[in-house]
Amino acid sequence: MARAVTEIYAEIQKLSNSDKEELLRALMAELDAPLDAEVEKAWLNEAQKRYRELAEGRVQGVPGHLVFERLRARLG
Fold first, then answer.
1. Quick one: how far is CA 12 from the chain centroid?
2. Torsion-angle region of residue 16: left (phi > 0), alpha (psi -120 to 50) or beta?
3. Cβ-contact 58, 50 below 8 angstroms
4. How many domains would you assign to the chain?
5. Which pLDDT tens digit goes with each residue over 3-23?
6. If we measure between CA atoms, which residue out of 24, 21, 42, 41 comes closest to residue 32?
7. Mean pLDDT lowest among 33-42, 45-54, 56-65
């Protein structure tokens, strides 16, 4: 990193509240952005495939509380 985080933080403290809010929104948008479009596309395709399998009755869902019970049993 070119500048220390503490230096950047000191500069942020000088900003108006509206400028801080704008900066925060920009940072959050960047963090929420997909890291890799191909990965995001693959996850979307997988989610759609799994939904179709459930909707068509090819697979049966497991209630969330059972998933967590099984996980706790495995992990102890």
1. 26
2. beta
3. no
4. 2
5. 799 999 999 999 999 999 999
6. 24
7. 33-42
Tell me what pLDDT residue 36 has: 85
The tally of CA atoms less than 13 A away on the side-chain side of residue 60 is 2
Please give the residue range of the domain that contains residue 20. Answer: 1-33
C-alpha span between 44 and 52 (Å, rounded): 12
20 and 48 share a domain? no
Tokens of 19: 């400028």
Same-domain check for residues 76 and 40: yes
pTM over 0.70: no
Same domain flag for 73 and 41: yes
- Please indicate, yes or no, whether residues 43 and 66 belong to a single structural domain of this protein: yes
Same domain, 53 and 73: yes
Could you tell me how far CA 14 lies from the centroid of its own chain? 30
